[in-house]
Amino acid sequence: MTAPILITGAGQRIGLAIVQHFVANNQPVVMTFRTRHSVIDELEQLGVHCMQIDFNEPDSVTRLQATLHTHYSALRAVIHNASSWDCEANNPNFDTLFDNMMRIHAKIPYQLNLALANLLQASSSTSDIIHLTDYVVETGSPKHIAYAASKAALDNLTRSFATKFAPKIKVNAIAPSLIIFNEHDDEQYKAKTLSKSLMGIEPGCEEIINSIELLLRSNYITGRTIPVDGGRHLK
Q1: C-alpha neighbours within 13 Å on the C-beta side of residue 37
Q2: How many CB atoms lie within 10 A of CB 154?
Q3: Which amino acids are annotated catalytic?
Q4: Which residues contact 226 (CB under 8 A, 6 or more apart)?
Q5: What percent helix, strand, coil does the chain show, rounded to 5?
Q6: Long-range pairs of 229-232 with CB within 8 A, sequence gap ≥ 24
Q7: Closest by CA position to 83, among listed 4, 197, 176, 167
């Protein structure tokens, strides 16, 4: 039996697209989601193991770890997609904001990597941990200071865990800028955002999926971050 891939925060947008890609390619998937949408019912009917997990709850990692160890003897990969796009302008309680950003983007992946290492090491092939970080790791962000700092922490964890888990587990990161717009984004915002990259397009989730597949198929890439930013660093 093929070992499943765990994808966190996969109930919508990029995470959902990743799940649907693996389902279409007959790769078993375990996913976590916070809010139950109708698509969860569809995924369950397709055989996806969907777990409602709110990583703001203190026992979330313990419950997830226990369930995985009960149902599975190995994992092919863990993809850390769970994220929260939050900023100082919307949160006057900066202490809480910083703690929340660090928890979801750094502490939870840190805990899960350690808790699930034995399942990843039990995979019949080389296994993978993939962190979804952000383009702002390189630049910082004056409007999303805590968010950028937490994603930078996750980027650093990539190198630490790559060293710790080699050679059985490869650990890498993917750092996107714009991938897909939100439904409520207006045309002015879209035009401004598109102008920030050299390529000037909304690339779609396939760009992240292609990067994930590259890492999963590689026998040699570890401790690296793949930028998926359309040349934004050169603008």
Answers
A1: 11
A2: 25
A3: 147
A4: 172, 173, 174, 175, 211, 214, 215
A5: 45, 15, 40
A6: 229/135, 229/175, 229/176, 229/177, 229/197, 230/177, 230/178, 230/197, 230/198, 230/199, 230/200, 230/201, 230/203, 231/197, 231/198, 231/199, 232/135, 232/177, 232/196, 232/197, 232/198
A7: 176
Strand order from edge to edge, sheet including 225-228: 49-52, 29-33, 5-7, 77-80, 127-132, 169-176, 225-228
Candidates 79, 64, 133; CA nearest to 105 is 133
Per-residue model confidence as pLDDT tens digits over 118-163: 999 999 999 999 999 999 999 999 999 999 999 999 999 999 999 9
Express each pLDDT in 70-119 by its tens digit. 999 999 999 999 999 999 999 989 999 999 999 999 999 999 999 999 99
Residues 226, 176, 35, 109, Cα dihedral to 10°: 40
